[in-house]
Amino acid sequence: MRQQHAGTDDYVPGHGDASFGVEHYDLELDYKVAGNRLSGEATLRCRALAPISRLELDLHALKVARVHVDGTSARYSHRGDRLAVTLGRTVPEGESVEVRVRYAGTPKQVRSRRHGQAGWEELSDGVIVAAQPHGAPSWFPCNDRPDDKATYDITVTAAKGYHVAVAGELVDRSTRGSTTTWTYVQDAPMATYLATVQIGRYEVIDQAGAPVPVRVVAPADRPEKDFEAAFGMQPQMLGFFAETFGDYPFASYTAVITDDDLEIPLESQGLSTFGRNFMRDDWECIRLVAHELSHQWWGNSVTLGHWRDIWLHEGFACYSEWLWSERIGLMTVGERAEVHHERVRTDDGDELLLGDPGPDLMFDDRVYKRGALTLHALRRQIGDACFFEVLRTWCEENQFGTVTTAMFVEHAERVSGEDLGELFEAWLYTVELPPLPD
């Protein structure tokens, strides 16, 4: 009997299967930059969360050649973006099964009426993967839910002369003939949308002075003065955030700067991606460098379980920008809060509930700014010392986990010892913007 597909998020419908979780992905990829041709073999260790005789994976556009389950050839169907695999037996709850998928084709971004395009994107001479929130299936078969984190081994073979950066730690690189194979390991559990591959003719710049290795992967002909102005303080930035939020959660941090201009930067796990146009000596670029770096705490280590809770990522990252502004002697947090409170108050966009903005507004700028204002209101109510204790313990207790808004409210009340229901109801679940507390 066909089991009902479950587990999709209303904000990203049609993605994910709640009947199982993936514990580990082993991805072996071969990519031809000339021609934009990807072939791969993905081996998934899946754990049944209920008795299952089939499971469904997300895979977009690429053609499946064969599927094996526990080493045996398996029946499958690939319709639309859903790859349904027949397991050949009923796998009991709690038991693991290995699914291996061989696939190839021309990767294409996943299109969404609400969220635009995301995923594997061909550049003028290379590739970026920017998958938030729905683009992971553009390059590997996955259980595409933000609450299903797994560890990864990712091996990418590409033409010699290209640098390959992946969300993980480089453990091996070998050149054979005209190709180089790069092997990365991600030991920290990672959501599918945070996995990434970046390929280009880049050089690596190591930046000293941070608690962990920090590097920039960038074009050799970058404008040095503007590059230093925008990215030169990343080690100090990481150190400041580590002092403020708790230890940096991953083994290293990489900023990739593509040779193409990009509309927006985007975070991945242990790595952020920027376009060439973000190398400028101005606050807009500096704040985005801070924003993406802070996502390593807010979003990548501590990750939403449902997309409706996106303010837990973007509001926190926006507030981190304001903290860095004050740290380097620009506008204080309070000054930025006042400016953005007025802008949000006078915004004439569609009505928005921060705690559940809806899929059409989940990346609305008010989610970012009102989210940061919510944190500032909390800070003013419970005081600085207690506020930063709330943030540090939130990171510590939920490292590499998934969270909800209700969990944060409960956490803030427990740490502060205060009833914060009225505050959060006003800021998260009321359309009207509350006044900024004194």
UniProtKB/TrEMBL annotation:
<dbReference type="GO" id="GO:0006508">
    <property type="term" value="P:proteolysis"/>
</dbReference>
<dbReference type="GO" id="GO:0005737">
    <property type="term" value="C:cytoplasm"/>
</dbReference>
<dbReference type="GO" id="GO:0042277">
    <property type="term" value="F:peptide binding"/>
</dbReference>
<dbReference type="InterPro" id="IPR027268">
    <property type="entry name" value="Peptidase_M4/M1_CTD_sf"/>
</dbReference>
<keyword id="KW-0479">Metal-binding</keyword>
<dbReference type="InterPro" id="IPR042097">
    <property type="entry name" value="Aminopeptidase_N-like_N_sf"/>
</dbReference>
<protein>
    <recommendedName>
        <fullName>Aminopeptidase N</fullName>
        <ecNumber>3.4.11.2</ecNumber>
    </recommendedName>
</protein>
<keyword id="KW-0862">Zinc</keyword>
<dbReference type="InterPro" id="IPR014782">
    <property type="entry name" value="Peptidase_M1_dom"/>
</dbReference>
<dbReference type="GO" id="GO:0016285">
    <property type="term" value="F:alanyl aminopeptidase activity"/>
</dbReference>
<dbReference type="GO" id="GO:0016020">
    <property type="term" value="C:membrane"/>
</dbReference>
<feature type="domain" description="Peptidase M1 membrane alanine aminopeptidase">
    <location>
        <begin position="231"/>
        <end position="427"/>
    </location>
</feature>
<dbReference type="GO" id="GO:0005615">
    <property type="term" value="C:extracellular space"/>
</dbReference>
<dbReference type="Pfam" id="PF17900">
    <property type="entry name" value="Peptidase_M1_N"/>
</dbReference>
<feature type="domain" description="Aminopeptidase N-like N-terminal">
    <location>
        <begin position="23"/>
        <end position="194"/>
    </location>
</feature>
<keyword id="KW-0645">Protease</keyword>
<dbReference type="Pfam" id="PF01433">
    <property type="entry name" value="Peptidase_M1"/>
</dbReference>
<dbReference type="InterPro" id="IPR045357">
    <property type="entry name" value="Aminopeptidase_N-like_N"/>
</dbReference>
<dbReference type="InterPro" id="IPR001930">
    <property type="entry name" value="Peptidase_M1"/>
</dbReference>
<keyword id="KW-0031">Aminopeptidase</keyword>
<keyword id="KW-0482">Metalloprotease</keyword>
<comment type="similarity">
    <text>Belongs to the peptidase M1 family.</text>
</comment>
<dbReference type="GO" id="GO:0070006">
    <property type="term" value="F:metalloaminopeptidase activity"/>
</dbReference>
<dbReference type="InterPro" id="IPR050344">
    <property type="entry name" value="Peptidase_M1_aminopeptidases"/>
</dbReference>
<dbReference type="GO" id="GO:0008270">
    <property type="term" value="F:zinc ion binding"/>
</dbReference>
<dbReference type="GO" id="GO:0043171">
    <property type="term" value="P:peptide catabolic process"/>
</dbReference>
<keyword id="KW-0378">Hydrolase</keyword>
